[in-house]
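Hi C.,

You asked whether I'd gotten around to modeling the 95-residue construct. I have! Everything is below, sequence then structure, no commentary in between.
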Amino acid sequence: MLLCGGREDLELIQHEIRQLSEQYSIKCLENASLEERLEAQTKAVSENRRRVSELMGRCARASSLKGRCEIVFALTLRRHENSTAQFVFGGVNSD
C-alpha cells in the first residue's frame, strides 16, 4: 500500500512538472514575442527622435531665413518709398 501511494505521488509530481514545463515554455515564447515588439518600438522611438531633431533644425533654419526675408522686404519697401517720394517731390521741386 505504501508503494502504491508513493507511485501515485510520483506520478502526480511528474504530471505537475510537465504542466509547469509547458507553462514555462509558453511564457518563454510570450517573452520572446514581447522582446521583439519592444525592440521594434525602441527602434521606432529612436527613428522618431532623429526625425524630430532633423525637423527642429530645419525649422530653426526656416525661422532664420524668414527673419532675413523680413529685413530684406523692409529695406526694399523703404527704398521703394524713398525713390517714389524723390520722384514725386523731386519733380515738383526741380524748377
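If it helps when you're writing up: The mean pLDDT is 88.

Thanks,
B.
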